Amino acid sequence: MPSYAILGATGATGSCLFRTLEGRPSTNLNLYVRSRRKLETLFPSISEHKHVHIFEGWNDDVPLLTQCIRHTDVVFQCVAVNDNQPGLRLAEQMARNVVSALKALRADDPSAKLPSVIVLSAAPANPVLAAALSFPVRSLVHRAFSHIYADLERAETFLRAEADWVHAVFVQPGGLSEAEPRGYGLSETTASPNLAYLDLARGMVQIAEEGERWYGKGVAVVADEKAGGPQPGLEVLGQVVVGLLGHFLPTVWLWLKGLGWI
Fold first, then answer.
1. What is the mean pLDDT of residues 88-115?
2. pLDDT tens-digit readout, 212-241
3. Would you tell me how many other CB atoms lie within 10 Å of the CB of residue 206?
4. What pLDDT score does 181 carry?
5. d(CA 180, CA 196)
């Protein structure tokens, strides 16, 4: 029976991963969340799934995290934020916590097979994928989400330093949306500007199923452009404007965030 751990199962990506996998009773699912109540609100019938196990705790609870990933084949690291928050270190800290949990598993049983780690990242954090963007767009995006990308790059650097024993894959989509899924593909050279979260989740599951083919690689889940679909709208413009504020005026961004204005 395949066994997966989803870290951040109430987020946009993590919840779509659960939706993708919940109908597979032969697949064991360990869900790591900060709020069990939020998870049960999203999925009212979740307690009926005997193959689903819920772990509620803070992101830095390494002993609980170790329990969550024990006896799993793949860990989906989906804990993330969309705000260009100055000083952001969430992805890096999660990478460190996952490695600490893996070390604990290895200490308990040096012969145990450790799970691989599929990390949610972003296309602009990958120089190859970012190069597909025009220079003006690339410059704008890198500034509007600079703190997010810097955090993702630190997390990747840390995990790659452990590559002799930690098998990580970096999933690096372009823009994401709540649009209806329209089919997907996998690419190491291009990314899509408007990928549905459900298509992202399905691509991540495929990467998990294909295993070592993707170890150590950065890969984008791309939308099936032949299927059409909406293009990025005004909500993206709003994110860009607020993100630029976080890049150029971080103190003002933090002040406005504290007031709840952004």
1. 97
2. 999 999 999 999 877 565 556 556 788 999
3. 14
4. 93
5. 6
Contacts (Cβ under 8 Å, ≥6 apart) of 140: 240
Cα gap 135→127, rounded to integer Å: 12
d(CA 172, CA 122): 4
In this prediction, residue 145 carries a pLDDT of 97
Classify 168 as helix, strand or coil. strand
Tokens at 85, concatenated: 């928050």
Buried b (16+ CB within 10 A) or exposed e, 4-14: bbbbbbbbbbb
Mean pLDDT of 77-90: 96
Structure tokens at 63: 């002993």
The structure's pTM equals 0.95
Q: Rounded distance, CA 207 to CA 167, Å?
A: 13
Reported as a single tens digit per residue, the pLDDT across 176-194 is 988 899 999 999 999 988 8
**CA pair distance 142, 222, nearest whole angstrom:** 20
Could you give the CA distance from residue 29 to residue 169 in angstroms, rounded to a whole number? 19
Q: What's the rounded Cα separation, in Å, for the pair 223 and 186?
A: 9
What Cα–Cα distance (Å) separates residue 127 from each residue in 17, 35, 107, 118, 204?
26, 35, 36, 19, 21
- Mention every residue, 6+ apart, whose C-beta is less than 8 A from residue 214: 169, 207
pLDDT surpasses 90 at 51: yes
CB 201 within 8 A of CB 17: yes
The answer to whether the CB of 145 falls within 8 A of the CB of 124 is yes
Whole-angstrom distance, CA of residue 235 vs CA of residue 14: 22
Residue 250 corresponds to which tokens in the numbers above? 């971080």
Report whether 143 contacts 247 (CB < 8 A): yes
